[in-house]
From TrEMBL:
Keywords: Methyltransferase, RNA-binding, S-adenosyl-L-methionine, Transferase. The active site is at residue 360. One of its GO terms (molecular function) is RNA binding. Belongs to the class I-like SAM-binding methyltransferase superfamily. RsmB/NOP family. One of its GO terms (biological process) is RNA methylation. S-adenosyl-L-methionine binds at residues 248, 275, 309. Residues 127-429 form the SAM-dependent MTase RsmB/NOP-type domain. Gene3D superfamilies: PUA domain, Sun protein, domain 3, Vaccinia Virus protein VP39. This is SAM-dependent MTase RsmB/NOP-type domain-containing protein. The keyword RNA-binding applies.
Length: 433
């Protein structure tokens, strides 16, 4: 179809140059495909069996048989995604939704009025339409697109519930705009359901807290915590006993952590707005002084376990319908920036404590290379994780074969059909001043 644009645009060439043709091809083949939906269970209030049963009752008929507890990670319930299903969009009136809306639709969301950007003049209530995501993010709300040549990513066909007037000339139009009954990918829409019982989390992210393995009663830090996916998981693994400190940079980000902790009924999480890289501002030489301090102060070498899940190039995220053309400079900058979090973590971690480093990218510079950096720079050694679902680390980035086997790497084309991800577990072997 001539109006379908290849997701990634010019970034194909950059990816080839950076990672080689084979990786670039596999990468873009999987980028716009949604992985299976995974729900992590709040085992403090329910069981995976109960969640699986409730989900079977909620998901579309075609997906019921695929709901299962993951054998390799028993606090995760998985619902498979069907697709791509061959649909024909010929002769249908076209509608364009925003790129973000398109990505949500690939994960099973409905199409609501605010997400619709443009539609042909033929749009009327009740007609069948073909829906495209505007991967260029260039359409202005309410545009007419009769020329049939605006590039888009095809999402499927559906029935229009609103016309142009209802969509574009009604202040704050809301509600379902199109029922996508012939989606290219069929995924369950689980947002907002079973709120106290599940947290929607990609499979590799649900592995991370098991790798950290925090114990009840311990003193644990999550340095880049918002919206709190891994923090809430840690609190659950700790039986909601102990102290769990969570940092993030923005005010709203901290509110998100608090909201998620509250909805899951967790009480041990103390979230702070804090730039984790500026450790001189929040590490107290005289001991811990958190009460009333702004920013709060923490004692050097005091935490039993620390997670560093820093901002990264996010090359692992899927489905994804856009790509930054600043890719190559971003990759280098991110890798260097992440080292600041590692340094701060080593200063805060007890000798003998556990540090886990994770990213949602496939970029070896932010993954294996930063592990090498950490091993060379700090008193740290790699450890075999208790839970291992990923593959070994890549060659040629400074890790020995034995070290590559201790880290885990998830690739979007890997056997678990997950987003791309990386995770390594270290033990601190001595003091660090
Ligand atoms: C990969 S996300 C964390 C996801 C989170 N761990 C989870 O599982 O829900 C990275 C986070 O780092 C935060 N961040 C960025 N710079 C930071 C800084 N200097 N200090 C603390 N947090 C920072 C971002 O706001 C973002 O929420």
């Amino acid at each position: 179809m001539d109006s379908v644009q290849r997701v990634g645009g010019d970034a194909h060439e950059t990816m080839k140059r950076l990672f080689g043709e084979e990786v670039a091809l596999k990468y873009f083949e999987h980028l716009a495909r949604p992985p299976p939906t995974t729900a992590r269970v709040n085992t403090l209030v329910t069981t995976p069996e109960q969640v699986a049963e409730e989900l079977r009752a909620l998901v579309p008929e075609a997906l019921k048989g695929s709901v299962a507890i993951l054998e390799s990670l028993p606090d995760v319930v998985v619902v498979q995604t069907l697709g791509p299903i061959d649909r024909s969009s010929s002769n249908l009136s076209k509608v364009w939704v925003s790129r973000k809306c398109g990505e949500a639709v690939l994960r099973g969301a409905n199409i609501f009025a605010p997400g619709v950007m443009a539609a042909e003049t033929s749009l009327a209530v009740g007609i069948r339409v073909a829906v495209y995501a505007d991967i260029t993010d260039s359409l202005t709300k309410g545009s007419f697109k009769n020329e049939d040549n605006h590039p888009g990513h095809y999402l499927g066909n559906g029935i229009a519930k609103m016309d142009r007037k209802m969509l574009f000339h009604t202040e704050r139009a809301h509600g379902i705009a199109i029922v996508l009954d012939e989606a290219v990918f069929v995924a369950p829409s689980l947002n907002g359901i079973m709120e106290d019982k599940i947290y929607l989390q990609n499979l590799p992210s649900a592995v991370v807290s098991h790798v950290l393995d925090p114990q009840p009663g311990e003193y644990v830090l999550d340095m880049c915590a918002s919206p709190g996916g891994k923090t809430t998981h840690m609190a659950i693994l700790m039986g909601d006993k102990g102290r769990l400190v969570a940092f993030d940079k923005g005010y709203e980000k901290v509110k998100d952590i608090e909201r998620n902790a509250k909805r899951l009924g967790l009480t041990i999480i103390q979230a702070h707005r804090n730039d984790a890289t500026k450790y001189r501002k929040y590490i107290s030489e005289s001991g811990e002084v958190t009460n009333g301090a702004n920013p709060p102060m923490f004692a050097r070498e005091s935490f039993d376990r620390i997670l560093v899940d820093p901002p990264c190039s996010a090359l692992g995220i899927r489905p994804r319908l856009e790509f930054s053309d600043r890719l190559s400079t971003d990759l280098q900058q991110k890798a260097l920036f992440q080292r600041n979090f590692l340094r701060a973590a080593v200063m805060l971690l007890k000798p003998g404590g556990v540090l886990v480093y994770s990213t949602c990218t496939i970029n070896p510079g932010e993954n294996e290379s930063n592990v090498r950096y950490a091993l060379d720079e700090f008193p740290l050694k790699l450890e075999k994780p208790k839970v291992r679902l990923g593959e070994v680390g890549v060659e040629g980035m400074g890790l020995s074969d034995e070290e590559r086997e201790m880290v885990q790497r998830f690739e979007p084309w890997g056997r678990h059909d997950t987003p791309g991800f990386f995770c390594a577990r270290f033990r601190k072997t001595g003091e660090y001043q």
